[in-house]
Amino acid sequence: MSTSSSTPHAPGAGDAQVVAGFGVQDESGLEVHAPKDAAAGVTAVRVSMERALSHMGPKRTGQTLLKLNQADGFDCMSCAWPDPDPDERHAAEFCENGAKAVAEEATRARATPEFFARHSIADLDAHDEYWLGQQGRITHPMVKRPGGTHYEQIGWDDAFALVAQHLQGLDSPDEAIFYTSGRASNESAFVYQLFIRAFGTNNLPDCSNMCHESTSVALAESIGIGKGSVSLRDIYDAELIVIAGQNPGTNHPRMLSALEIAKRRGAKIISINPLREAGLVNFRNPQKPRGVVGRGTPIADLHLPIRINGDLALFQAIGHLLEQWGAVDSAFVEQYTAGYDAWAEHVRDLDWDVVAAATGLSREQIEEAARMIADSDATIYCWAMGLTQHRNAVATIKEVVNLALVRGDIGKRGAGVCPVRGHSNVQGDRTMGIWEKAPDHFLDALQAEFGFDPPREHGYDTVDAVRALRDGKAKVFMGLGGNFVHAVSDTDVAAEALRKAELTVHVSTKINRSHLTHGETALILPTLGRTEMDVRASGPQFVTVEDSMSSVHASRGPLEPASPELRSETAIVCGIARATLRQDDGSDVHGIDWDAMAEDYGIIRGHIARVVPGCEDYERKVDRPGGFVLPHPPRDSRTFRTASGKGEIAVSPIEVLHVPDGHLLLQTLRSHDQFNTTIYGLSDRYRGIEDARRVVMVHPDDVAALGWQEGDVVDLVTHWEDDDVDRVAPGFRIVSYDTPRGTAAAYYPETNPLVPLDSVAEHSNTPTSKSVVIRLVPPSAARDGEGADGTQDAAESETEHRSRPNPEPLHLS
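RESULT FIELD:
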């Protein structure tokens, strides 16, 4: 990310600019309290029950929450943290955000055809994400015809025929894009990729492209497989757990229970994060007396408040110290790794001044962390978006793996690498073939099973899919779950790209922004949720999912469907495939029996067993309580399927991201009251921010140095030199917060418009949502273009705001 000047300036009338904002929310009710110093506790139980009861009522609350994450129940849709063994699970095996996710899906509210008749698309588009989510479950298939202003009801067969008509009318299968959210089951993901490849393209972008793609690339090149190498029991048995760029208290709350067990067994924990998050300070387990009336469990023994994008320098500095101290597992390095000598030479030449500039940490802090790693015989390295969404993300994750390799922490009990996924089945979708770059061995197995030659040319990932739609190279977009336009970077570019499509299709449970940024023709196909029973002609069905630790297990919903018109994702995909690939005599062009798979998911699992590596005897394995674990060669046998046949220790130069004077380095993050783009409410309780989302958290010294006051309303502006455009996210209130100097934090998707489409991680193409250079400007300057047109001088504008009264009062306590 780069900027056009070294001091803040208001975009003038002569500057290209994009001012973003869908259904911008009123932030006048903002209240700011001191951040919490503990996560969960009795408050989490109260909030969980209040949300569940208000959305579902007593009966549905009991039907769902008591089956959530149970061996005979359904898998939570709010994260991919693994479940304990079946005999070790609690009756309440869920967290606050899991309860919120279930309440959102199992709500009694309904968005019926009558609702869509009352509300035009323009009317819906004027509302914010929270309001849209509260309108309830979509009950019938809906269509927006060319020139139409409203969605109207359509029958399922007509909807399938409409999709088929558009797909068959394309000049090339590559003019269609098929996106996947991580909530899709293994069965629906498998038939989805099968249909798309039978249709003739590998255009299979998915949410992994936007989150953990950097992980997949780095791990595949370093250890030969793009998945983590640990189990839940390894977490329990670790001597040291390093948690970098991850906030488990909000994003993976059940992880705190595992960390509590590890702490009780003597483990130490290092937290590496720009913000001191409550969940890594203390965990008050509401299922334990000490979590209710006691002091809870302290989590992090050491917190490193790292500057945004300083992780690569930090891990290299730790490697420098380990090598200097001789704290290297020489036997492991000699037998199982390649590249050590070049890496050792590289880290010996470390420049501590560069490290200090990049990390904002003292040498003493870094040495303390390195000593803890040197003293540990079993270390686990955990990370999430805080590492994956930077330009140098792949190099950073390789540096994490370097530490694990030089310490011999791969293929050892209580040790390994642990990327923590967000979506509940994003890892399973990739296992099932949802990938624009599927390897030849997978395509060969698909060919052997179904008798057609799948396309071999790589397809579009998420960023390239937006480019293709924008440039007219793609004309049809289909999304299997998710809220594509608000999940991807550069929101306004993505929205305009979708609007250029001839057809957009979204398989969804509830209304989201992507339905309102539609193509000329648009379909919403309502699907069953995880909480609901799926009964087909052959009887009740179940689906399977894979968690962050490669465990595959069954999921069965307990509720009656929200509408008799709903169909499962699997049945919807099979219906579209049947209509699209049907020959004149009614048979499938490749002889695939889509109807059979739609009616009996066991048939799909039979195909999975013969196509997907590690899934042999799939039906029997997933029928066991708790399921089974997929093979992982580095973990299981210290076998590395890399170019050298060993774990690759990589050499990466340190980069220091320069932020000009008067600017800040922004990271986007979740509130405690959301799951990705789904907004549950307006309470970021742990950070002390209530009843508002358009806030920007800035260190109090930076607030003063930039001439602002807490509570001032500003626009966030970033300048991308490649297209010479000022991107503006309007109407954010400043909240003083303990962030590293020179940095800021704000929630997504509200800040996604600030991330240029072309600002991506090297090698993975993941958007750089965690390192955005911004400046704060007065709202009128960004929205009206004051300054360059002579109506108001930019410097005057920057000064005048200091005395401008707040539009609404800010409540501080």
